[in-house]
Write a structure and sequence with these properties.
Chain B: Keywords: Ligase, Nucleotide-binding. Chain B: Pfam families: CoA_binding, Succ_CoA_lig. The complex is a heterodimer of chains A (405) and B (308). With 405 residues, chain A is of the alpha+beta class. Helix content of chain A is 40%, strand content 22%. In chain A, helix 11 crosses helix 12 and helix 12 packs parallel to helix 14. By secondary structure, chain B is α/β, with parallel strands linked by helices. In chain B, 36% of the residues lie in helices and 20% in strands. Chain B has helices at 19-31, 57-63, 78-91, 105-118, 145-151, 164-176, 197-205, 223-233, 273-282, 294-307, and strands spanning 10-14, 34-39, 47-48, 51-54, 71-74, 95-98, 121-123, 129-132, 136-138, 154-161, 181-186, 212-217, 240-244, 287-288. In chain B, the strands form two sheets. Chain B has a seven-stranded mixed sheet with strand order 3-4-2-1-5-6-7. Chain B has a seven-stranded mixed sheet with strand order 9-8-11-10-12-13-14. The chains are: A alpha+beta (405), B alpha/beta (308). At the A-B interface, helix 10, strand 13 and helix 15 of A face helix 4, helix 5, helix 6 and helix 8 of B.
């Protein structure tokens, strides 16, 4: 789950990291009030879950409260990369002496969290790492042992930073590392953390992303930030009608798991496929043989007849989809006969002939004798494990697109 | 021989009274595995397919005459997995298969770190475990014993896969081609896992039965780069053949979407399918387009090595 900047700043503030005296609002008039309270030049920042705000005109500087109001009104109307802003952040324009970067991410290869620090803040850390590797300090830390400030100090010193900046940044990075673990984050970044002319340090922007798997035990924080359950995990794209239909079928029954996606797919081959790895393999096999899938799907964990039926119905309800290919890698938990019954039921309930509609059925494995018997009864073309995933996908392409062409 | 487990390996099932765990227990017993007990808090005194159930591992070990079992299959819900694995590690269990999926990454990292300190090895999470064809299986891999017998016959190829289902698909293909499988490991699809390809290579290297390795991989993570580095640094006797699924995810219209396992959310160019294939091939690991191409290539590579 991603957080808006105003939420991310609240998270760092709660962790004891200094932030500016900013205000968040969805109303231009209130932006004026906040600017007046701040008293001095302000920065008005669009609150969107996408990058490139500055370039898109989503960040503007104001000298007076009136100007702040005018900018806020513009920015609240400005769509960025297809995202409407949640609101604006009104921030005092900081008297910056130098900008630094600090972040914490997971390192999958090392299997540990990793701290990053650079004295070249305000720009993309990947670019800094590539062009000025000696300006980036890195350090892993333990998920078992208590965190101690020296670990953060080493990372900062490795970036070539010493003096006051090292002393001031050490507890801030330590707190960021701690909040990263405490709040089940995938990414916790302060860019920039600014050294002001009076010598103090303050976070001028923050970027936080929480792991969806951790949300269950972070309910208190999510609630405190005012995020309602209806926001879900804040996926990057808006689910399609098909995706919502499949999610509803999945949620209606706890047996097994089905997923469906069709963002980015616009073909006519309806795919009822599984499981995780099999779905990826089959989608590649269909496309590499010239096929255009109408969707992606995943079946797993031994779904009920109703679930398999619901997925097939959702796929067949898509525009241009007349036929489906039902294919999986060899199953050992999911039952062949149950999936067969589900997809046949979907055809019958939609008034379609299963033999015509199911172009191919290739699911070998558990309960295959029973499954094949049912498929025989309806005259559906099926194959066992002697037909590879690649061949089955090829047959599906030939039967579905070949006829359409 | 085999890697990690053999005919004498004893193990327990944590969360044994759960629906899937009951099936898994049946499957493993039928296959010939030695399950010496199960743990579900509050269910002491019950039996699952004749396997005694305890509240704690300490009780189980006491019942077992003080002998610590070799392994554990952990099937408890995500919120309790870390605690269950810590219990196993503190008890001195050395081989742990974590079946549970959707475990928060912080917990996975902590379990793996403690396992490292304890000299133990974790397989998974979000995996189906491992199988030594005809000898023993630890986890749901291959399914019921009769299904597992069809897909997995003893042979010369070691299999490692990020997808549980594809472990069986590949092994079945190798079995049908007469090559068979030495040990197949479903390593799990998450971003952090207990045992990566490179970390398991030394075990296969030491196993005389294994003559070649087949890996199944997906976009996401840097495990292939790690394997490539291992291959370059160690003069391995084993030819490796890879299959990469999810190439379609490299397309522009798929950016920012997630498919399959939690690990396959592509965030940078470095862990895309194209990038990974290039890296594997650089290290001399051919990447096939189709699963059904694997057996002939394995045979050719084995012949090449034995001629050299």
């Amino acid at each position: 789950m991603r957080f808006f900047e105003y939420e991310a700043r609240e998270i760092v503030k709660r962790a004891g990291i200094p932030v500016t005296d900013y205000g968040f609002t969805t109303d231009a008039a209130e932006a004026k009030t906040i600017a007046a309270r701040i008293g001095g030049p302000t920065v008005i920042k669009s609150q969107v879950l996408t990058g490139g705000r500055m370039k898109a005109g989503g960040v503007k500087f104001a000298d007076t409260p009136e100007e702040a109001e005018a900018h806020a009104a513009d920015i609240l109307e400005l769509e960025i990369n297809g995202h409407e802003p949640r609101g604006v952040l009104v921030d005092p324009k900081a008297d910056v002496k130098q900008e630094y970067y600090m972040g914490v991410v997971w390192d999958g290869a090392a299997k540990r969290p990793l701290m990053l620090f650079s004295d070249m803040g305000g720009i993309d850390i990947e670019q800094v790492a590539e062009e000025h590797p000696d300006h980036v300090g890195r350090g892993h830390f333990s998920t078992l042992d208590p965190f101690s400030d020296f670990m953060a100090k080493q990372v900062i010193a490795d970036a070539g930073v010493t003096g006051k900046a090292l002393q001031r940044c050490t507890p801030i990075l330590a707190r960021l590392a701690q909040l990263f673990l405490d709040n089940d984050m995938l990414l916790a970044e302060i860019n920039p953390i600014a050294e002001l002319h009076d010598g103090t340090f303050v976070a001028l922007d923050a970027h936080m992303e929480m792991e969806n798997e951790g949300m269950g035990r972070q309910k208190a924080l999510i609630k405190a930030l005012g995020i309602g359950a209806e926001e879900g995990t804040r996926e990057t794209y808006v689910p399609s009608a098909f995706e919502e239909a499949v999610s509803a079928v999945d949620a209606a029954d706890h047996r097994g798991v089905i997923q469906g996606k069709d963002n980015g797919f616009d073909g006519t081959i309806g795919l009822i496929i599984g499981a995780g790895g099999g779905s990826l393999t089959l989608t590649d096999a269909v496309r590499q043989q010239g096929g255009k899938p109408a969707n992606y799907s995943e079946i797993g964990g031994n779904p009920s007849v109703a679930k398999a039926c619901g997925l097939a119905k959702a796929v067949l309800a898509k525009d241009g989809v007349e036929k489906i290919a039902v294919m999986m890698s060899i199953v050992s938990n999911t039952r062949v006969d149950i999936v067969a019954r589900g997809v046949i039921k979907a055809c019958l309930e939609l008034g379609k002939d299963p033999a015509e509609t199911i172009a191919i059925f290739r699911i070998p494995g558990a309960w295959e004798e029973e499954g094949f018997k049912i498929l025989d009864k309806y005259g559906i073309e099926y194959c066992d494990r002697s037909v590879s995933l690649w061949e089955a996908a090829g047959r599906a392409v030939a039967k579905i697109q070949g006829e359409a062409a | 021989m085999s890697i990690l487990i053999d005919k004498d390996t004893t193990f327990i099932i944590q969360g044994i009274t759960g629906r899937e765990a009951v099936n898994l227990t049946r499957e493993c017993l039928d296959y010939g595995s030695k399950i010496v007990g199960g743990v579900t808090p509050g269910r002491k005194g019950r039996e699952v397919h004749g396997v005694p159930v305890f509240d704690t591992i300490a009780q189980l070990v006491e019942h077992n005459g003080g002998v610590v079992p070799d392994g554990s299959v952990v099937t408890v819900p995500p919120a309790g997995t870390k605690d269950a694995v810590f219990e196993a590690l503190y008890a001195g269990i050395k081989t742990i298969v974590i079946v549970t999926e959707r475990i928060p990454r912080r917990d996975v990292a902590a379990m793996v770190e403690l396992a490292d300190r304890s000299g133990a090895r974790i397989i998974g999470p979000n995996c189906l475990g491992l199988i030594v064809p005809g000898v023993a299986k630890m986890g749901g891999i291959g399914g019921p014993a009769k299904n597992a017998a069809v897909a997995y016959q003893p042979g010369s190829v070691g299999v490692m896969s990020r997808s549980g289902g594809m472990t069986t698909e590949i092994s079945s293909t190798l079995t049908a081609a007469g090559l068979g499988v030495s040990t197949a490991v479903s390593i799990g699809g998450d971003a952090i896992i207990g045992s990566t390809y490179a970390e398991l290579m030394p075990y296969f290297e030491a196993d005389e039965q294994t003559q070649a390795i087949v890996i199944y991989t997906e976009p996401g993570g840097r495990m292939e780069a790690q394997l490539s580095a291992w291959v370059k640094e160690n003069n391995s006797r084993l030819p490796i053949i890879a299959f990469m699924a999810g190439k379609f995810m490299d397309d522009d219209e798929m950016q920012g979407m997630s498919f399959g396992h939690a690990g396959t959310i592509v965030e940078g160019k470095e862990d895309s399918a194209t990038e990974k294939i290039a890296r594997l091939e650089e290290a001399g690991i051919p990447v096939v387009q189709r699963i059904d191409e694997i057996p002939d290539l394995v045979k050719a590579k084995i012949a090449e090595r034995s001629a050299a």
